[in-house]
Amino acid sequence: MHLSDGVLTMPVVTVTTVVAGSLIAYSLKTLKQEDIPKISLMTATFFVLSLISIPIGPSSVHPLLCGLLGIMLGWQSPVAIFISLLLQALLFQHGGLTTLGANTLLVSVPAILCYYFFFHFNKNKKMSQTVISGLSGLIGVLLAVLILIATLFITSSYFSEGSLSVIKLLVIGHIPLLFIETLLTAFIINILVKVRPELILRKI
Amino acid sequence: MGKSFISEIKNIDPKLTPSSWGASWEVRSKLITCVLICFGIITLQTPQIILTSFILFFVLTISMGFRFIFIISKLILLVPFLLFMTVPILFANGLAIDQERINFVINLNGKVLTSALVMMILTLSQPLSKLLQALSHLRIPSSIVAILMLALHFVKIFLQTIASYQKSLRARGFQPSARTNSLKVYSGVMAGLLLRNIDNADKVHLAMTARGFNGTIPTSPIQKFTKTDFIKSASLLVCMMILILIEKWWV
């Protein structure tokens, strides 16, 4: 899910950097000084959790956790995601500097939408909490893949050409993650609500 | 899982000697120069110019004192990503590959690899702590720098925690897979780590406040910006500008 430097064209890089910058600036506005240790810990936790590889056949996938991040951090998630991606670029050269904006948007926008989705449906009590959490995880990955596809499509038509184009391969590659992320988010939120309900339910 | 990343983090401190021109380069000017160069690289459109820039930065990294094998080992990490991007584009119309498609693929690979070299110059020519210190002396919101520094500290601790979790799971006969039962175990581990850290966050905040934390992480004074640093930054930026100008007017 990391776009490296050099994949996106200058106009796409400019737009995504400006939009991501605005999102982070707004996110920083909601941040209080006492939140800094919490956000740092959560950033580190999500950074480490996203490194856990889950084997699927000969390959493996890493969870994105944007649904979970959105539910836990809400509007503060773009800052956590930005820092997490910056660390990945600095430590492992995953991603890049010019694509930092695009990569931040890929995860932040789904995270914020998942936050609204989860708390809207949880408030109405129309569905069970486990289903809503699972759906948040599913929507998170779906949206992230959609934004990634849109970004690549705008960059060049080469990414979408052919019966096995880069975009098609990306979609196929993320199908297992849809299933995994749905279950993981549902299970994790379930545990958190059972052990520390105030962490999740205080926001409703 | 975590182990390879722990060793990766340990390797983050470079093997460059302090006398290397890359290691002695003032970090703020290096940071700004490398970011500008990365943006310059993505504006390039011609395969010859992109290849020239790749050779230029390869020679520069070698001249800094990075070992040839080390550079190649870092670039090889990008191969799966590049193959994933290159093969479907090249063979989108079967074996009939047109020149435009080849140029696009060369450009893509060249830009990715050149940017990776620039990132290597930026991140691996001094300890990461120095880079973060330089960030704190730039006009970046202090909260971002504080979160970045604290997060990096916690990442190092959590990676070891995750590695020990993995060890104990294996000792109990856990077979990692994408099956529901396995995912339940994964989510148990993840939720456990989250809960533990949420509790720790409050303690950390209290401890930091008690030590006078006001939203800014204090850092030691930054290295002085000298004439030599200006020459290093200016020469690299001029090289990049020359490449862009050659492409605009002569190619």
Automatic annotation (TrEMBL), chain A:
Main location: membrane
InterPro entries: CbiM/NikMN
Protein's cellular compartments: Cell membrane
Membrane topology designation: Multi-pass membrane protein
Pfam families: CbiM
Annotated TM spans: 7-27, 39-57, 64-91, 97-119, 131-154, 166-193
Record has Membrane as a keyword: yes
Keywords, in A-Z order: Cell membrane, Membrane, Transmembrane, Transmembrane helix, Transport
UniProt KW Cytoplasm keyword: no
Designated name of the protein: Cobalt transporter CbiM
Native species: Aliibacillus thermotolerans
Gene: cbiM
From TrEMBL, chain B:
Membrane topology value: Multi-pass membrane protein
Pfam families associated with the record: CbiQ
UniProt keyword annotations, A-Z: Cell membrane, Membrane, Transmembrane, Transmembrane helix
Keyword Plastid carried by entry: no
Transmembrane regions: 31-62, 68-92, 104-124, 144-165, 230-250
Origin superkingdom: Bacteria
Keyword Coiled coil among record annotations: no
Subcellular location per the Swiss-Prot or TrEMBL entry: Membrane
Record PANTHER family: SLL0384 PROTEIN
Name of the protein in its database record: Energy-coupling factor transporter transmembrane component T family protein
Organism encoding this protein: Aliibacillus thermotolerans
